Amino acid sequence: MTLAEHKEIKLPTTVHDVALAPDGETVWAAGLDGMIRGVHLDSEESVLLGEHHRYASGVHALPDGETVLSAGYDGKLLWHDVVKGLCFRQVQAHDFWSWQSALSPDGKRIASVTGQYLCGDYKYEPAPEKEPTVKVFDTKTGDLSAAFSLRPPVQAVAFSRDGRHLAASNLMGETRVWDLDRGKLVSAWATGDFTGWGIIKGHYYTGGVFRVAFGPGDDLLYLVGMGSTRDPAAGNGKQLWQAYHWREGNPAKVAEASGDETGQGLMEAFAFHPTGDWFLMAGRLESGQWNAAAFDRESGGLRASHDFKGRICQALFLPGGDRCLLAGGVSQGGLKDGQFRDYGRLWLADL
Amino acid sequence: MATSSQQAADCGSPDHPMHRRRFLQGAVASGISTMSWSGLFSVPAFAEEVKRSQKHCILLWLCGGPSQFETWDPKPGTETGGPFGSIPTAIPGVHVSELMPKCASIMDQLAVIRSMKTNQREHTQAINLLNRGDNPRPPFTRPTLGSVLAQQLGQLDSAIPNFILLDPCPEGNEFKGFKAGNWAGWLGAEYAPVRVGGEFTIEDAERLAGVSQVDHEEREALRRFFSKKFENERKSAAAASYNAVYERVKGLMSCSHLFDLDRLPQKDRERYGPGAFGQHCLLARSLVEEGAPFVMVANGMPWDTHVFNHEIYQMVVPDLDNIVYQLVNDLKDRGLAENTLVVVMGEFGRTPWINVKRGRDHYPDAWSLAMAGCGIQPGAVVGSTDALGVEVTDNPFNEKNLFATIYQALGIDPYAAYELPNLPTFHRVEERADPIKEVLA
Predict the structure, then answer these.
(1) Global pTM?
(2) Domain residue spans in chain B?
(3) Which of A227, B82, B270, B357 could covalently link to B307 via disulfide, CB atoms 3.0 to 4.6 Å apart?
(4) A-proximal residues of B, 378-397, CB under 8 Å
């Protein structure tokens, strides 16, 4: 198995999230400039669909093919009419950023997570939440359908494949899973493996879980991020995924990335191949060999990898499963002739 | 140790005639021993007057280099602005980061310089530059701001140290290296900081129960006599430093309780926020109230955000916002603002552009700092940067301008020459660099 770059598309700013349109050829991209753009993967032409007043952090295409939802650091959820090219609803979901959002498999619910890290004690433990940090909204009406509690900042959220459960994880590596039908917490545990308290430069926490995802059959929950660092300014934690049996009373870690096959750097993207046999993890390379790699579901071993020379924030598979789309960016760089370069990237990769 | 330049600085506020240098001059001129002079401090009214007119400086040292975009010079909605917005302040037309609502409300009490432009991009060099006010000239070591102020503002026979470094985080990469270095330079060890805070507690500062006060003082007098004799006969700098340390320990024995955070009122502790930096800034205020001329508060290098700039600043900037607000208001409420200069700065700013690690890198080309209190023009906002914050467009100032400003604000001659043996001619501020007049009251 190989993972090789097929094509690189440049966009003005780093792409935090992408969603595939029903035509399979267009993606909606949420950018650091707050813009929601439609990008045709062949022609590379792009159209502007909408705008957040801060970074756009999430974008999701509803099954109706006519509606796109987006989330942003302005704390808002926006509903966009793709046909008319306008925003027809906005909901102030949070007082702070929407760090990440997820669409339920049936497209009926969108979940968004938030929370500001504020100093909570002498050693800079995060202060308690001021508002519910995990919220679920009805995509048809925009109404809030559920709100859950988890210590801020909550950085990752995912629906289970059957749509019955919602998982979220935070800076401190605390993970919770709720039953959406009953509105109840069904699992909670914590791991310090993804979080660093700055010993070398500053006394505070960095890192945390940046992506959660349910595996095939929904029995395992995968946590993704970067291993603990001593220096918050180094970004040199281990490229890390871990899998947990979340249904157990005391969820146990059943697998994790092998230190022999990983380097250092924050991992933000995670996607299972449509076959369910393997998954892709991607992010940024600090030191090592790759910033995107395929891992075998059964063994957890590395099957293929590649360095795309940038930061990858999101990954998804195109129809057919023999090509994936990686979204992110490179360094903004300094001004050249009074302008910044385009530093957003969509990488198409062949498998 | 330093001679005044022709035109002595004058900030306009009542002078402080009882500082160490003038005391010594007075003692020599009148032939009265310094012991007799220092005895005056036992007269309560006199001591209180000295305390009242004493000038102080608190430096909130934001080591690592705080981002100007997320603090004093926001550029919201631009390619460099980041995810935080800006908010209006008490000064019409002036905005700061939305992370600083409390400072925004007291902007008419602060002075902000938005056009700092320095020439050192790496921490070690820049930390030295912004602590000493000049680039190095080996083999000579210029004293830090704290050491100069300890010498100039320090009280004779004061129990409380003249230079206190509150340092709850003992680490800090390059700052850790700086902390281990020579702070006092050619002024000598007696002007080096006493470092406390966090894990640095003052231990064993109590007189042993088995030693009476009389015995203790007699032993100290004997030690002092022989040590001074040795120092004089051998002209030993090492012995002089040794004696300076003894004098400091002697002082600390009488004031160690002042460094105990637990003695501070719980309400005050809550106001300053729970974090180590806030607690030590409150301690700094308390020490100034007790007469400390210079207190520097550091906390490692938390502002060095090459990675997770916004994720870290969502926490550290609101913490700083509250601390500056509480400190400035406290000093005003306690009648200390007029004689206490507060400086809030790091060694440089951070890049306008975002790197691939979600961070901002070092940027000395255009950065900001804030001041308040003694000798400072409240509400002054000086200098500006271009729309993206890349270049200074108006009134660039460097470290020499800054140090001249600080000295002038405190009524210290910025251009005085150091007169020390085996030392070429150095001045507190070289090249007669201008102070930043716009921020001086």
Answers:
(1) 0.89
(2) 2-16+54-193+272-439
(3) B357
(4) 388, 390
